[in-house]
């Protein structure tokens, strides 16, 4: 199964065989044998590589969950020692990564026996990753009602209108004015705003949806569009004069930030330690004004 997953990750039999230290014909036989055992095709050949079929994609997701569980059990056994150790996989949203990750990496230096892995995905996708056992913790906006997740509310964050630094005006915008502003939003931000504005009679004027925060950042800085972003993500550019920020005059324009994990799954000392670090980081950032305009 690990051979299959490696081919799926690299998309190339030759490269996979090299990293697995076996010959390509031997690896090919193993893949064919797995396909015969399952009675399905797992790959189709494409130009210079291999592409997963739908059955192959489902098998990869299941296998990753199994490997994660094996790693978790191994960590639990190792956790009988005093110092927390093992691998901890944390899923973090793209808007929170640049805010939380630098501080988390710095604090992890005190725990050299914990191997930290980061998976960056949007808030709508992280609950599924938790429940599948692919990640241990999720740092995200609360966008799910699943009772299978254990949540810790860590901060409420303002959603703000963001323009270029040269377009700064009054720092408060009324809803009636906001709905007339053409906006470019990421898909996740669009979902968040729909939830926050569900009681409003007027919808936001979204002219484009894009899923590249970096491209969106450039467009805003150049004055080509306006957007709505979490304050912490826009805060650095705002302090540098690259962004203009306007507070939306509505107390409901705040997203709930959480640290979450799957209920009912046995955990390790390492996961507990990283979870506590994340909560403390949010407490410190919130106290220093990272999530609300002061």
Automatic annotation (TrEMBL):
InterPro entries recorded: LysR_HTH_N, LysR_subst-bd, WH-like_DNA-bd_sf, WH_DNA-bd_sf
Entry's Gene Ontology molecular function annotations: DNA-binding transcription factor activity; transcription cis-regulatory region binding
Keyword field: DNA-binding, Transcription, Transcription regulation
SUPFAM superfamilies: Periplasmic binding protein-like II, Winged helix' DNA-binding domain
Domain HTH lysR-type: 1-53
Domain of life according to the entry: Bacteria
Similarity comment: family membership: Belongs to the LysR transcriptional regulatory family.
Protein's name in the database: LysR family transcriptional regulator
Protein source organism: Allopusillimonas soli
């Amino acid at each position: 199964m690990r051979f299959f997953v490696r081919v799926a990750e690299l998309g190339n039999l030759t490269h996979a065989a090299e990293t697995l230290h076996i010959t390509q014909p031997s690896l090919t036989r193993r893949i064919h044998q797995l396909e015969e055992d399952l009675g399905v095709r797992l790959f189709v050949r494409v130009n210079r590589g291999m592409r997963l079929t739908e059955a192959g994609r489902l098998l990869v997701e299941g296998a990753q969950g199994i490997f994660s569980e094996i790693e978790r059990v191994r960590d639990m056994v190792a956790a009988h020692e005093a110092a927390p150790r093992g691998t901890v996989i944390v899923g973090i949203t793209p808007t929170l990564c640049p805010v939380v990750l630098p501080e988390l990496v710095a604090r992890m230096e005190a725990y050299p026996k914990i191997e930290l892995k980061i998976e960056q995905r949007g808030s709508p996708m992280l609950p599924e990753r938790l429940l599948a056992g692919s990640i241990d913790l999720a740092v995200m906006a609360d966008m799910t009602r699943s009772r299978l997740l254990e949540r810790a509310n860590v901060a409420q964050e303002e959603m703000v209108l963001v323009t270029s630094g040269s377009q700064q005006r009054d720092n408060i915008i009324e809803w009636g004015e906001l709905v007339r502003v053409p906006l470019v939003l990421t898909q996740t931000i669009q979902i968040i705003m729909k939830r926050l504005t569900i009681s409003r009679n007027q919808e936001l004027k979204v002219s484009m949806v894009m899923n590249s925060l970096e491209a969106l950042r450039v467009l805003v800085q150049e004055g080509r569009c306006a957007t709505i972003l979490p304050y912490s993500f826009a805060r650095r550019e705002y302090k540098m004069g690259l962004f203009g920020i306007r507070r939306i005059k509505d107390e409901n324009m705040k997203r709930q930030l959480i640290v979450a994990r799957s209920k009912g799954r046995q955990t390790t000392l390492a996961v507990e330690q990283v979870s506590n670090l994340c909560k403390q980081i949010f407490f410190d950032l919130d106290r220093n004004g990272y999530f609300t305009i002061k």
